[in-house]
Amino acid sequence: xxxxxxxxxxxxxxxxxxxxxxxxxxxxxxxxxxxxxxxxxxxxxxxxxxxxxxxxxxxxxxxxxxxxxxxxxxxxxxxxxxxxxxxxxxxxxxxxxxxxxxxxxxxxxxxxxxxxxxxxxxxxxxxxxxxxxxxxxxxxxxxxxxxxxxxxxxxxxxxxxxxxxxxxxxxxxxxxxxxxxxxxxxxxxxxxxxxxxxxxxxxxxxxxxxxxxxxxxxxxxxxxxxxxxxxxxxxxxxxxxxxxxxxxxxxxxxxxxxxxxxxxxxxxxxxxxxxxxxxxxxxxxxxxxx
Length: 290
Fold this sequence. Notes:
Elements: H1 9-17, H2 32-37, H3 41-45, H4 60-72, H5 77-89, H6 94-107, H7 115-122, H8 166-179, H9 181-185, H10 193-203, H11 212-223, H12 227-243, H13 247-258, H14 264-277
């Protein structure tokens, strides 16, 4: 990997450390949200990678090369997706967020040999939570819980390891996924269970004010025969609901826990999801799933 301190964005991050106002950089050349929003459809679908200012963001040239190799089907897929996932795991998502608009066409192309790999890493930049979170208060949250931490100019996301505003990276990735949600929804009916699982995981990061995504999760769950996919659909519905609270959806998730016709895996996922959406714990949740 290249040295991120040579990237132009590093100067912005240093300026922020020295007291510059974050608002002065909004919608500028270093605002990954603006860069993603300005990508034209022909750029995304035509893979016009040179039209994107990768070099403006930490590890941008590495990410561009990974996207190119993934699209071309060249080289080990694990190396390319490992780089993208590794950057997110290391809390450096800005350039990975730039890749999301290009990963979606690969993931939704049923003939592309790397579609599963692209889909598997698609939503990694859209979550700012560190790996290993398992508490009821933080599980299925894509950001710090604002009830426990004071809001600040960084919208309570803080900064990445490079000093870049973490919330900007997450917002850019989520916006790209939201824009293409209708295309990603078709993957919930894919014949490959692994594709259905990763599609649910990606769609859980989309904005869903009209409950379109959650309705699709419920529709798919009604006919899903794979217990693990059912569990993924329920956890995805819970994650989406944590970002946009909807009491009817929370009640629906609780009903799935109580529905003994559901597979044990699905009932357990529903119980976990419902616990993350409420502060209460009824006695029936303490009984073992049979």
